[in-house]
Structures are given as structure tokens and as C-alpha cells.
Amino acid sequence: MKQYFAYILLCSDNSYYTGITNNLESRLYDHENGVDPKSYTFKRRPVKLVFHEMFHDVNQAIAFEKQVKGWRRAKKEAIINGDWHLLPGLSKNNM
Fold first, then answer.
1. Fewest CB atoms within 10 Å of the CB: 21, 49, 58, 92?
2. Contact 56/1 with Cβ under 8 angstroms?
3. pLDDT in tens, the chain (95 residues)
4. Is residue 34 part of a domain?
């Protein structure tokens, strides 16, 4: 069964990069070694893998990636820290 990964990298400028791949090890190598000079992470190396989630359905992986890309930093840090239960409270407009 095919596997897909949504992942978050912490970049050297303290920003987060969110992506998806079907080969996490290879994709991380690409980010770490600057394979694509046009990529977001190229000038923000070194990068560190801080979160990944596996999916068996590519559409679910894509949907999760898009959702996370739209999140504020606090929500991303909640899932990085395994605090999924904090997400509803962080979704409120006043937080």
C-alpha cells in the first residue's frame, strides 16, 4: 500500500515549511542539501523535520497539507508538540 507524508520543517530563520511527499527520507535529503535553488527552504537551511503524519490516500495528505499551510504558528506548534487537543481552542478568532 502506498504511503504519503505531510510534514513540517523548522527552517534556520525559525519559519515553518509544510509539504507532502511519498518518500520522506528522499524529500528531506533534497531540502537539507539544497537540490532546488528556487525552493522556499534553499536559503533557509539547515532545516529540521519537526512533524510528519502518514496517509494512505494522497488526497487526504494533500488536504491535510493545505489545511496546515493555512494555520497560524500556534496551531502548527500544537501538532508539532502532540497537543492535538488544543486545536479547537486555537481556532477561535480571539486567540
1. 92
2. yes
3. 899 999 999 999 999 999 999 999 999 999 999 999 999 999 999 999 999 999 999 999 999 999 999 999 999 999 999 999 999 999 876 44
4. yes
Q: Which residue has the cell 477561535?
A: 92
pTM flag (> 0.90): yes
Could you list the residue range(s) of the whole structural domain that residue 15 is in?
4-70
93 found inside a domain: no
What CA–CA distance (Å, rounded) separates 14 from 53? 21
- The secondary structure element, H or E, covering residue 6 is strand 4-10
**Is there a domain that residue 53 lies in?**
yes
